[in-house]
Amino acid sequence: MLHKVYGLALASAFLVACGGSDSNSNSGTQTNVQSEQKARFTLGVSDAAVNNVAAVNLVFKEVVLQSSGGTTTRFETLDESGNPQKVNLLAYQGSNTFELIADKEIDAGDYEWMRVTVVNGIEGEISEMRSHVVYEDESRAALAVKRKGNDGEGEIQINSVLVNQGENDYVLEFDLGKALVKTGNSSTVYLKPTAVRLENQALVFDISGTVTADLQTACIADNSALAPTVGGFKQVVYLYTQTEGELGDVQEEGNGPMATAVLNQEGQFEIGFVPAGEYQIAYSCLGHLDDPESVDTTFALYSTQSVSVSQDTEVTFSE
To answer: Which of the two ends of the chain, N or C, has the fewest CB atoms closer than 10 A to its terminal CB?
Structure first.
């Protein structure tokens, strides 16, 4: 029997980060400096897994922060050869991160926005120097992030970033199950910036756990009529902020999950970078029906429970 959960709305905000580490070298320039208060800034990237894809190679070129007082801060994100940094997001799942910017000095204060520039892939011209995905059958497709101008680059913009004096350690969390979409007859895969969130590593926690084999078997048996024609059932855990109304699939506005995680072969999952708060967490074996490009009327959650997060938390789904 399917379980459905109702709850209260919970707003989320971008918070100030503390902590830091050092990794890759990055060059940075800053103009129109108006504040004498300084901060250390670190920015990493991480992702939640997606099925049927072996690699998601996003090529990062630059990070730009624009303060409300007019300060513009730029950091090139280059590899050891001086080229834009290619990162396979699938290599940094759960609480693992790749640092684009490591412990750089910037002005403390309010920033109106942060933009991350990526080198878009070009359809039919797959290159290691441009963003692309690699499918499990080893075929490849261009990966792009849309922006005005169509100049071969894309951008991910995060509004309202607060940087305090001291150490600031942020992570861009990519939920690839929600983010990667295809449109029309094009082979290009597009990454939706709305499925990327910025979190403060000092103020977030991990949710990990297990879905028992018995519950997975029961879900498959109860949904045998919805089996995929190719491949198997997709076992997924969904994390929702407390919402008013029925919890929905990844495409449902307002009721969609804030994060997803695919079970490994042992039935385990991990969702990283979750701010403290009250959530609903749900399991479904029907992830193969959860199309990020449309609302799926046949998709349903199989088991749900409430979880309060104020530290690293473990959850078990069982019959």
So the answer is: N
CB 219 within 8 A of CB 247: no
Strands 109-119, 153-163: pairing is antiparallel
Q: What stretches of the chain show up as alpha helix (H) in DSSP?
A: 176-179, 213-222
Q: How many CB atoms lie within 10 A of CB 307?
A: 17
User: Can you tell me the distance from the alpha carbon of 106 to that of 55, in angstroms, rounded to the nearest whole number?
Assistant: 33
pLDDT digits (tens, 9 = 90+) for 32-67: 444 468 999 999 999 987 777 899 999 999 999 999
Q: Round to whole Å and give the CA distance between 167 and 165.
A: 7
Percent helix, strand and coil across the chain, each to the nearest 5: 10, 50, 45
| Distance (Å, whole) CA 271 – CA 238 | 9
The C-alpha atoms of residue 272 and residue 208 are separated, in whole angstroms, by 8
Task: Please state, in angstroms and rounded to a whole number, the distance separating the CA atoms of residues 123 and 187.
Answer: 7
Convert the pLDDT of each residue in 256-310 to its tens digit.
Answer: 888 999 999 999 999 999 999 999 999 999 999 887 766 778 899 999 999 999 9
End-to-end CA gap in the chain? 11
Residue 127: which of 138, 119, 136, 117 has the closest Cα?
Answer: 119
Alpha helices in 108-197 (DSSP H): 176-179
**What distances in angstroms separate CA 132 from CA 59, 61, 127, 144, 151, one per listed residue?**
8, 15, 8, 8, 17
Ramachandran region of residue 226, left (φ > 0), alpha (ψ -120 to 50) or beta?
alpha
Q: How far apart are CA 86 and CA 119, in angstroms?
A: 9
CB 319 within 8 A of CB 214: yes
Whole-prediction pTM value? 0.77
Q: Which residue has the tokens 């074996």?
A: 285
The total of other beta-carbon atoms located within 10 Å of residue 187's CB is 12
